[in-house]
Amino acid sequence: xxxxxxxxxxxxxxxxxxxxxxxxxxxxxxxxxxxxxxxxxxxxxxxxxxxxxxxxxxxxxxxxxxxxxxxxxxxxxxxxxxxxxxxxxxxxxxxxxxxxxxxxxxxxxxxxxxxxxxxxxxxxxxxxxxxxxxxxxxxxxxxxxxxxxxxxxxxxxxxxxxxxxxxxxxxxxxxxxxxxxxxxxxxxxxxxxxxxxxxxxxxxxxxxxxxxxxxxxxxxxxxxxxxxxxxxxxxxxxxxxxxxxxxxxxxxxxxxxxxxxxxxxxxxxxxxx
Amino acid sequence: xxxxxxxxxxxxxxxxxxxxxxxxxxxxxxxxxxxxxxxxxxxxxxxxxxxxxxxxxxxxxxxxxxxxxxxxxxxxxxxxxxxxxxxxxxxxxxxxxxxxxxxxxxxxxxxxxxxxxxxxxxxxxxxxxxxxxxxxxxxxxxxxxxxxxxxxxxxxxxxxxxxxxxxxxxxxxxxxxxxxxxxxxxxxxxxxxxxxxxxxxxxxxxxxxxxxxxxxxxxxxxxxxxxxxxxxxxxxxxxxxxxxxxxxxxxxxxxxxxxxxxxxxxxx
Lengths: 273, 268
Known about the structure:
The complex is a heterodimer. Chain A is an alpha/beta fold. Chain A has a single domain, classed as P-loop containing nucleotide triphosphate hydrolases (Rossmann fold), CATH 3.40.50.300. Helices cover 40% and strands 21% of the residues of chain A. Chain A is built from 11 helices and 10 strands. Chain A has a 6-stranded mixed sheet, sandwiched between helices. In chain A, α6 (148-161) packs parallel to α7 (178-195) and α7 packs parallel to α11 (255-272). The longest helix of chain A has 18 residues, at 178-195. Helix content of chain B is 78%, strand content 0%. Chain B contains 10 helices and no strands. In chain B, α3 (71-102) packs across α9 (226-235), α4 (110-125) packs across α6 (143-167) and α7 packs across α8 (184-219). The N and C termini of chain B lie far apart (61 Å). Chains A and B meet through α2 and α4 of A and α7 and α8 of B.
């Protein structure tokens, strides 16, 4: 589905953020991207929808090379890529509904979006998605009136409103507490499973990644140093990715996590049936 | 292990000029210049005495303001001023919104940015009175010159503050809208406008307030309005009418001031 070939990015300051990264994400796979700060995780996912311009390489989404599109065609292709952000990135002074509907901006002409006259099916879809993330009764509230977890749910609904073929998720849990983080990760994985949607999830929390991802790619200094199933991710692999640091502390599970894991396993089992 | 002896005195280190001698020289230099500058002022005390007497008459006029005898002139001037204020603010805001967006570095390509910043720089560098004199010479005495002057001045003020505000928006919100495949206009409408709208409204109200005050000033150089009436009154030595006009101006400015600050608070 998504095939990245020899993608490189050198910033104007001369920093090499990515060096010939090649990776493919098949349909329905949720891929976790881990690595220390500055490893190029954010740059990699932003190179896919060209919020950051790659310096060299190909980004093939289906048959289209995203790295080589002009502005008009790029806008049309961006509709196929839903993105979920670290700080939710909702437009705070707009209502929840407007935020979800903004996922349709690439599909409607300017006058419709300006007058807020979206198509009936867009509005219906927005309500359905809000219901799916459990916020249908908050539709008319302003986005800044919601809590962190609720905002991230709206962010997910906005990305899904695009009817995307691919989800890019940038540190979805970085500003959430541990319990809410798991709820959000669970919602994300459930939705991807429901729709067979491939996703790249940028995540710095290794235990969380191991718990929810089907595949983990480790990035260090702009190169892929690990690419395998989460249960293969052991001590030596983590040392390769993060260096000889005290990453063991990150793995120390608490009761809540064990409980959450069991809960997640149950839910996934229900879903698989 | 013996305790190391820590100093018991501490002074804030100098922040700007590090060298003590330079600091001293600079302070003496500034003092010397101040003394010489005051010494060079020529004060004609006789003239001051006459002026005090005139000032006294002026103050007396204030204490016994005459609203009645020139009321038709005053009311015409007021209506002119208020019309000028409102129309010029509306027109100025309408023009400065696109210029403000164009002058925000994060929104437009560099050439457009430079052109819009250029317009703002021209508008800001010319003081209202100077533009008013120029426009009165072009279009003749009266409120039309005043309207143009205030509109022009509004552009420099509002477009600059709006542009600075747009440059400081939360970029991640804009990034999220851009990632949905939104066009440039949709980006402005969905990501920028919600973030800057309250401030734009606040600034417009504030400018309304400024424009009324300025309309009194530019009236003196012939651009119509209450300023022209005031000028006539002073020229005729009718200090009681002048006092009445000044009191009205003060009252309206205060009402506008409190009104706009209340509205802005309400909008936050």
